[in-house]
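Good day; I would like, with your permission, to put a structural problem before you. What I wish to show you is a protein chain and, alongside it, a tokenised description of its three-dimensional fold. Please examine both parts with care and let me know of anything in them that strikes you as inconsistent. Thank you for your consideration; the sequence and its tokens are set out here:

***
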Amino acid sequence: MEAVRAAVESRRADLGRFDQRGGEAFARRLASAPERPIEGCSPVPDSQVNSARDAGSDLHLEVSPAGPRRAAVAAALREAVRSGRLAPGTRLPPYRSLAVDLGVARNTVADAYAELVAEGWLTARQGSGTRVAERVAAKPQRVPRKAPGHRADAPVHNLRQGQPDARSFPRAAWAAAVRRAVTAAPHDAFAPANPQGRPELRRALAEYLARARGVSASPDQIVVCAGFAHGLRLIFGGGVLSGPLAVEPYSLPFHRGILADAGVRTIPLGLDARGAHTDPLASHPGISSRRGARAVLLTPAHQFPTGGPLHPTRRAAAVDWARGRGGVVLEDDYDGEFRYDREPVGAVQGLDPDHVVYIGSVSKSLSPAIRLGWMVLPPYLVDAMLAAKGLREAWTGVTDQLALAEFIESGQYDKHIRRMRQRYRARRNLLVATLAEHAPHIPVTGIAAGLHAVLRLPPGTEASTVKAAMWMGVALDGLAEFRHPDSPEPHRDGLVVGYAAPPEHRYRPALDALCRALPPPDG
């Protein structure tokens, strides 16, 4: 072993001489030096020598086939550094392994390295290998300072709806769930994924949804998707259902866009304090005709965005219509876990599992960055949905599915929901108290649940108020943004104010800025 150490130290000393002053000559000598056996050691087989030479990091070079090989390799390295593809400090592979990759002689690469060391493109230091030289960065151009009062491009305060508190994502608990889930996962979990979703997640969802949301389903009725929008694309874009489709008079514009892209005509219903008007479904001329709608899309737990649950009689009316029509109710349960001043409202799906498609996701409860959702389908629609998804899962990752299953089964999901429910309730309470103090003439509705509230404005003031808020650095949406263009309901001026997204230290300043943007009491 002492002989081995002495040989290694000798080789390191040789490498230390590979610098700008003597690099080229040393490279030639090193490349042509014969392999000398070390006293006291057995000869190393050629296969092991070759594998050692191939053990360096990969480096892709565009080497010109024309001209001498040394010049071509040097030019390719020089261009890679000049273009920025090889950043300063990047360690290059040993010349032996690069020579094997490029199919050239070792001394060709060694000479190219030495040439670039001499030119200052590369550096070679003992124990550090050959690296791209640190170069003097170009002096950044001075950005002119904006005049005082100039509005920033990005809003200072984010009061948009639909965004949870990203800072409260349970990083440690989620990381632990990932670790446990991946460790315990069977080998087939890392094969091409089943489009229906991992059975571990479907079992966990069936138990959780039955317990927390009153959903009646077996794991075989659940199909995993990437969220509500993805589910909507699969249902109508994949041919599972066809239009027309009865909808609420207010909804997300991009959901209407998904339906329009799939060629689905939407028929808006009326709306009042008890939710969407589902009673006229059986008599509406555009719905009850032979070619009329056979599906209705509802947000029963918390009407989006106006707020409030669908009244029990109207829930029953929607299910009765679907049963008599041979159709389905599409139930968007987008934030059903977050309720504050009322008892939980169970899912409509529990009334008739054979005529309701229940769709949920973790975009509000955990994070929209985790692209996981689920569809609880009547048994007769499962095969059609799987055909729409294709032979392999292309949208959701298996690791996230396994982690969410573990997160639910370990109780961490319930714990996170309870913690966030308390936090969002406190945010909601502060919004209501601030408006009561600074803008008591502005009614606030839809506050019993969810992550947003609706501020009712005097007629004709919505557009100017949204603009004023923008100049105050507040990002929010006007109610008109969500209104169906064919809605039978008259337009009502209002703001949709999300209270979940701002960081804690900016929430009060955001509310103060919002109050300054609101119209005065005289309108």
Summary: The chain has 17 helices and 17 strands. The chain has a mean pLDDT of 86. The first strand starts at residue 122 and ends at 125. Residues 196 and 223 are 5 Å apart (CA to CA).
